[in-house]
Structures are given as C-alpha cells and as structure tokens.
Specification:
Elements (H helix, E strand, L loop, with lengths): L7 E12 L2 E12 L3 E5 L6 H8 L7 E6 L2 E2 L4 H7 E4 L11 H11 L5 H11 L15 H13 L5 E5 L7 H16 L3 E5 L3 H5 L3 E6 L2 E6 L1 H7 L3 E6 L3 H8 L7 E5 L2 E6 L2 H15 L2 E5 L3 H19 L1
Parallel strand pairs: 3-8, 3-9, 6-7, 7-8
Antiparallel strand pairs: 1-2, 1-4, 4-5, 9-10, 11-13, 11-14, 12-13
Helix pairs in contact: 3-4, 5-6
The structure holds adenosine-5'-triphosphate.
GO molecular function: ATP binding; ATP hydrolysis activity
Pfam families: ABC_tran (PF00005)
Organism: Trinickia fusca
C-alpha cells in the first residue's frame, strides 16, 4: 500500500509527555517540510529526544496528535517505524566486523529482502564502498558516523531522525557529514536533527529551540533571530569580563556574552541600550558598533530567560 499523501514529513500538534510527575514535553507543535533539514536545539534534558521518539511513534504522547510521513503517530506507529531512519545518540556496531559486515548484520536484523543490494547501495551512496572491508574498530569518529548514517539509510527511508549525530566528531568530519545531509535533502529526504553546535544550526533550513520541554522559537534562522527583537552591540577593549559584569547592571542591557576579544551586548529596549553603550564607550574610551543579532546571541537569551522563569517555579 502506498504511503498517504501529506503536505509535511512531520506535522505534530500539542504533544505532551510526563515521566512520573515531571512534565518533560509541553504542547510541542512543529511541521517539517519534505526535503527540509530541520534543526532541533536546546540544552541537555530539554526534551529533544523525547519529542523525536513521540514523532516517530516510538513513544506514545500523553496528549496531542499528528502525522509522520502521513501516518498517524498514535495509531500507525508500526508503519512509521518501518519508514523512518532513526539514528540514536549511541549507535552501536561490532568493532571486529568490517563496515560491510556491520551493515549486513543490520539488514539481517530487519529481515530486509535483497540484503546484498541494499548493503551495496548504502555503501555506494554514502561513499563507503572503498572502505567496505575495513574493520570498524579502526575507523575514525567521522567514518563511524557515516556508517551509522548508512545503517539507518539501508531501507531507503524518506525521513531521517538524527539525535545529536555529530557529538564528539571533529569539525572536518562534521562538515562532511553535513554536506551528506544536504545531498540527501536535495534528493527529497527530510531530516530532523538535534544538535548543540551553532554552525550546524546555521546550516538547517528551519530550526526550533526547546527549553524545559517548551518550544520557545521556531522558523528559519532569520525568523528565529527576528522573533526576539534584540538589538546587539559589539564592544572591543580590555578587561571585558569586568566590563561585562558592569554592563549587566545598566539600563537596556539584558545580556552580555564574551566572544574571544569582543563583548556582545544585547537588549530588547533598543534606545536604552544605545544610550548605555554611548555612555560607556565615552567614559572608558571603548570602540563599540551595532551588529546584527546572531543565532547564538538569541539562543543564549532564550536559554537564560527560560532557566530564570523555570528556576523560579521550582
Ligand atoms: N524514560 C524516561 N524515564 C524518566 N525520565 C526520562 C526518561 N527519558 C527522559 N527522561 C527525562 O526527561 C527529560 C528530557 O529528556 P530528553 O532525553 O528528552 O532530553 P534531551 O533534550 O534529548 O537531552 P540531551 O541533549 O541530554 O540528549 C530529562 O529530564 C530526562 O531525564
């Protein structure tokens, strides 16, 4: 039977999940388009994995509804599980087996028909063919990630759910991994990927930021940035840590973050912030200029605000 048609690869509304008395996912709604790379960001323990598991039918929400690849996440979880590629945070493989043998093992576990062809196809499409007979234990972190991706692509899913796929992988291998994701997306495969890396967030078509189980912002990088209406100034000078502390007590300053030899100062009251910056740069002979607020400034702002309000509730 062919898959039901749906405008979105993932379309979920108001998902909630409790573990005991802990409310870990709160009214999460999101849509992922076909061929879209959707980034899921948020601090540790904010509910990303739990949300992903509900979206692909592995975990039943306490309330809420939705579809994944057109199938109902509650009633049709078996169909979903067969059609998505899910890469968990801990992909396990046999170190003493080659790449090909590991993939063959996965294909056997899933009782795939045409196992040999499926393994060859995955090896080819992920550039692993030349290393197919290498022992997995001797591979670098980047190649192991590629093997993990090949394993979840064996059954040619139209949707990939990747839970922190590049944690602990070096920058070069991470870049290559992302090039691969963009190639897959260009072929119509949708990707929901959780990450803590800011450069990866910037490579997603759309993003969502979750904290304490609540989605705080969602959209393209520029929509997410604009949604918080922050003005940001960059200040150059010495003793930035001291200056940062001072600025935090001044009018219009909601946040200060040291980035190497520069200090980013952000606030939602643009006029008050400008007055403060003008005053401090005159008094201390500092150089300051207004810049576009970046994603990282916004994520730090969202995280801080949500930990203040949730901390107050605990
Ligand atoms: N099976 C479970 N039983 C009880 N609590 C759980 C269970 N799974 C997750 N939690 C709790 O739910 C909260 C959200 O966890 P989740 O793994 O979804 O967060 P996350 O954003 O994916 O975190 P990380 O970035 O560390 O992977 C955490 O407090 C976690 O301890």
């Amino acid at each position: 039977m062919s898959a039901p048609r749906s405008q979105y690869a993932i379309d979920v509304r108001k998902l909630n999940k409790h573990f005991g008395d802990k409310h870990v996912v709160r009214d999460v709604s999101l849509q992922v388009g076909h061929g879209e790379i959707f980034g899921f960001l948020g601090p540790n323990g904010s509910g990303k994995t739990t949300s992903i598991r509900m979206m692909c039918g592995l975990l039943t929400p306490d309330s809420g509804s939705g579809t994944c690849l057109g199938y109902d996440i509650i009633r049709e979880s078996a169909q979903i599980k067969r059609r998505v590629g899910y890469m968990t945070q801990r992909f396990s493989y046999w170190e003493d087996l080659s790449i090909r043998e590991n993939l063959d093992f996965v294909a056997r576990v899933y009782q795939m028909p045409n196992r040999k062809e499926a393994v060859n196809r995955a090896l080819e499409s992920l550039g692993l063919a030349s290393r197919a007979d290498q022992l997995t234990g001797a591979l670098s972190g980047g190649w192991k990630q590629r093997l993990a991706l090949a394993a979840c692509m064996l059954h040619e899913p139209r949707l990939l759910l990747l839970d922190e796929p590049t944690a602990g992988v070096d920058p070069n291998a991470r870049r290559e991994f992302w090039e691969e994701l963009h190639r897959l997306a260009a072929n119509g495969i949708s990707v929901l990927v959780s990450t803590h890396y800011m450069d990866e967030a910037e490579r997603c078509h759309k993003l969502a930021y979750i904290s304490y189980g609540t989605l705080l912002a969602q959209g393209t990088a520029s929509e997410v940035t604009a949604s918080q209406n922050l003005a940001t100034w960059v200040v150059y000078g010495e003793h930035l840590a001291v200056l940062s502390e001072q600025l935090r007590t001044m009018p219009g300053v909601d946040q200060t973050v040291v980035f190497g030899s520069a200090l980013h100062v952000s606030g939602s009251d643009h006029e008050a912030l400008e007055t403060t910056i003008n005053q401090i740069s005159k008094d201390k002979a500092l150089r300051a200029e207004q810049i576009e607020t970046g994603l990282e400034d916004v994520f730090i702002y969202l995280m801080k605000r949500s930990s203040d309000s949730n901390g107050a509730m605990r």
